[in-house]
Amino acid sequence: MARFRGWLKGKRQRWPYARIWMHALMAALGVTAAIWGACAALAVPVAQIFAENASHKLVQSAALAVATLASGIAVARGTGSPRYAALVTGVISFVGFLRETPTCRGDVEIFCVASDMRSSLMAVGAGVLIIATLAYARRDRPGSSGRFTLVSAGLWC
Length: 157
Hints:
- The chain folds into 2 domains: 17-51; 52-157.
- By secondary structure, it is mainly alpha-helical.
- The chain is 72% helix and 0% strand.
- Helix 4 packs antiparallel against helix 5, helix 5 runs antiparallel to helix 6 and helix 6 (115-140) runs antiparallel to helix 7 (147-156).
- The chain starts with a helix and ends with a helix.
């Protein structure tokens, strides 16, 4: 635990955007209020606004898909820490996209995913994160031969 604390407080790259959590919260509340206001202006009942598989879920899925694609491009172009950050962001966006996609059943047959396929794809995402984390941790250790990184990259592909 002390090693982790030392790494966390160490002099490494820092993102100078200190108020990101406050701004993210304000953006989330603003988007929620905008969705509620737009639906209220169209006389949509409150119970239907935030119901499962509501119309705004498609916008949410599209945003998560764009974030996943952008992260994939960043992984392909980046190196080192930015590549790892893009990979983590991409997998989180991908899992969020899968969670927001409706399950195929009688009333939903378009733009849906079977529940067993959803679980399998989430497991693949978790596996990619585990392999990338191990490879990244191994790469940062002094005196590492790089063989483990090569094996984990082969498993990733």
